Amino acid sequence: EVKQTMVLIYRACSYSMCGVSCPLAVAMPFLLAVGASTASAAHEHALQGRLQPKRGASYAGPFAFSTPFLPARLRPGPAERTVSEKKKLRTTFLATTTQGRAISGMRSMSMTAVDNGSSGEAVLKGPPMGRRDDEIVYDEGGDEKFQRYQGEVFCNRALNMRRVMAVGFDMDYTLAQYNPQSFELLAHRGAMDKLVNFMGYPEEIKDLPDYDPNFFQRGLMIDKQRGNIIKMDRHSYVKIAYHGTTPMNKEQRTEIYGSFTQKDFSAGIFAPIDTLFSLPDAFMYSQLVTFVDANKDTFTQLRSKSYTQIYADVRRSVDLCHRDGVIKDMVGLNPGKYIQSEAGIVDMLKRYRASGRKVFLVTNSLWDYTNVVMNHIILGFSDEKDRNLDWLKLFDIVIVGACKPQFFENDKLPLFRVHAEDGLNRLSNMDNALFDPPQDTLAVGKVFQGGNWQHLHYLLGVQGEQIVYAGDHMFSDVIRGKRSLGWRTVLVIPELEQEVDVALREHVRRKRIQELRELRDELDEWIDRLSLLLVSCERDSNCALTDREIAIETEREKALEELISVKTAFAEELRLYHESFHPVWGQMLKVGYQNSRFAQQVQSYACLYTSKVSNLGLVSPEMNFRTQLDVMPHDQLEETPIRRILRARARHLYKALEADTGEDYGRSQ
CA-CA distance, 309 to 315, in Å (whole number)? Predict the structure, then answer.
């Protein structure tokens, strides 16, 4: 096709398509970048143009054109266009810009351009978001289906479960999902009390807004040194930032983080929000930063509180709440209030056991709390008098107080046996755990505290890629296990269900964003081609296009105006799209059009990821998880802007030549 196109371009020179007698070396780049010209009958078909609609006038295509220098995307379709005196133009364009010009080459889409009455510019308004009734698929019972998340397990790295000998789980936010409105509120209120009672903060901080679990999201970073919370893409570009509770504009973000590299963000002054347990920390920190900034002169004890110290105080206060029973004692009294019920966990565990695989639990929680939670989610027992150890039958080994991520890194950590059966939760040393036969050790009991990965591998009789471990903490559960030990990993992302559901609901807007993005890219390419022509003529006094420079420059200026309009529309649509996920931070796994830093980590370290661990039970224990095709920009060569432009121009050129010569080249469709 390329060869035939070049032949036709060469023939086009004989038809004086450039309007001058030009050599092939001049004609070819001009024809590829600009299109045909004005001199011959082929010009009527090869070139497309631009129409400015006037008030009260009705037009039907094809149209006359104001200039021959026009990108292939900027051509109207054959439908009738009408502009009424009511300052409203409504038509089925392939798209429209804020200056009322038709834009084509995009998939069909209904748009409305409404004159704002002041500047003379129009504002893009698209079709209503969401799905039309005729787009919704219903099952036999009349319930909507296939338009929301169905519990899929997504695969980043192929995982054949037939090669897996042991499957392990974290407990908190993995086997046990907590109610954020109640559970995280315990941590927030308890920590605020400790900040006042033990860390020198004034009583007035208790009047700050109560905890809002929806204010922050996972994947953010806390800049402990500057008091900022930031969100960045996979290239470490900071797209959104707040100082305390105050948003930062682009200039402020660029001034601070513009020269930062990925290595800089790995320094100790940054703390990732990579687990749901960290959300109360981020909320308290942002509130305290704003409070301290505003009240240092009022409360003298705050003058010594740097942003780094504020963060340290918040972390210490939350840790104290976990240790002294402020949180876990309340959960023990009424587990059902704080822990969500999740059907399918017991069946999943039984299925793995029945398949012959070892099943283990490794959690940082201590035994007394672990027993409370597991009784509730496995046996359904919330009252203390009903609790027992029957849930242990679903596991080969249970390790509590594991101190992850040190469990994966420090092979010197000692292992202790927990004597759970006597009710006293006594601990005894296991100095010979790596020497005694595993069957003898496990015959005495299967509950342990502390230890390290060597103890687990030895007792299970497996290692490395024979183990799959599911957890919710990006660093402690996934990155460390994969990097240090070669474990296969499953990341539990409870927010994934909402992310997928919103994306499906907003498919119309997402499609429009893609179309506007393609149009923007093609306009950029077109402007660059026009600029190249102008530069080439400036350097060559004998340039064949010298007498067309004014026309080329005029077209370039119009294209620049068009580009500004498209960029404005694109930015607005993208903003609205992201706000449909979260009003402040947007889509968790995206930053603008790029993957977020959190998404990059998910891709790199989580072999599988899903919204809840019980989704693993929706497939067989022998499942072979396969990845989708990795796509790089060069894999989508035909979708690049220049390829689309040249392809469109080639079609028009074929049509022009066929009309002029009567030959059928078979390429005009």
Answer: 10
